């Protein structure tokens, strides 16, 4: 950008900005930025949103929820409105309430959800964009500790569709072969989310998981890590599991395996819908047993290093934060 060139006014609006907030300092090099932080899918300070609306030249709605609906209904002539969709939006009624004519472009984060976005909304393809998620690759701590091949991780076990029980089954099969295997559980536990805690079927699922741990003597092999900085913590993890159930509305991207690759580990994925467009087939499996066999085959450190190479290369080349920013700039300008 020319030093004398005026920065465009970019408004970022949404209730949960965890997938976009790390980009903001980079975007501030090119745009004057204001944040409209909502407190829920459809809960916000309307007076503040109105003031933001009057100020903005470009509106970026993170999530296609109540925020996108409100801005599509209030957008002014001459403003540009961009909406980024993840996954949950396709399971809500918000996609039926948005004024599609007022939205300049919709972003999907993967090929499968690009097609689902068009299918569920009937928007013209000319309004749909595919811009993948990103990672700040250089922020991940690295380690060459060969013992990491015995450490597994699952990042996010809520809700039940994330497949926590499958991860425990993988762990059990590994422990039967070698007592050194551990499963590290990152993120919130069921009791920490009201909507999970108040859902009997969800709580029964996690009760079953606890019983499985107890029945198979896995207490010493499961570490509940909670909410930590995975960029620092994953350096000692060999394998990050993505064992989500395969549904029509499955994972939109699932960044956890990419976190694993970025930290020098290996992401391993069950064959959920759309995964083949995001990750190499080397790391996609049709059963827990296939995952177990792959992990056992990586006990040799040299084999582990060789096997992680393609995944790390993919992250560096396709999912860098620089690529994401350039794609956004083209869309905004």
Automatic annotation (TrEMBL):
This is Glycosyl transferases group 1. It comes from Candidatus Venteria ishoeyi.
